[in-house]
Amino acid sequence: MKILMVCLGNICRSPMAEGILRDKINKQGLDLFVDSAGTAAYHIGEAPDRRMIHTAAHKGINIGDLKARQFCVSDFDDFDRIYAMDQSNLDNMKMLARNDEDLDKLDLLLNCKDSFSKKSVPDPYYGGGDGFVAVFNLLEEAIDYIINNKV
Q: Which partner from 2, 55, 63, 96 sits 20 to 30 angstroms from 18, CA to CA?
């Protein structure tokens, strides 16, 4: 299975989600592939936000090697599941969908579990360090749920 994590600029939430899942894939020997992208072209080729890199490193995960890229229509062909961090990015991807098959691949990451239902992963970009830690914890919980329930 191939999973794509998507946020706006691909420098905070989605690379963190990619890093967490990639770490779990490696540690648990899972048959999954993960990547991340942003719906906007603001940061193409840039590394994740330094605060997110620091938060991940503090949790033992290296995301410093990731580079931002923009979501494109061919991602519908390349991935089985595409998880958006919030409704706005989900809506942007829905506008690019070519058919119902593309639409069926899309969901909010936090829709994976009823207690998260219809919630967005908050964007920590304009906040302090605590927001990055909170996002890490929320993403890790959602990703654990996805792995354990094969969502």
A: 96
pLDDT band (50, 70, 90) for residue 151: low
Predicted local distance difference test score (pLDDT) of residue 55: 96
123 classed as catalytic: yes
Catalytic residue among 12, 13, 22, 75: 13
* Domain range annotation of the chain: 2-149
- Angular region, 66: left φ>0, alpha ψ -120 to 50, beta rest: beta
| 77: Cα separation from own chain's centroid | 18
> Residue 28: its pLDDT value, please?
95
Residues 6+ apart with CB under 8 A from 39: 6, 7, 8, 70, 71, 89, 92, 93
Q: Please state, in angstroms and rounded to a whole number, the distance separating the CA atoms of residues 25 and 126.
A: 30
Given 49, 75, 86, 123, the catalytic residue: 123
CATH architecture of 2-149: 3-Layer(aba) Sandwich (3.40)
pLDDT tens sequence across 43-70: 999 999 999 999 999 999 999 999 999 9
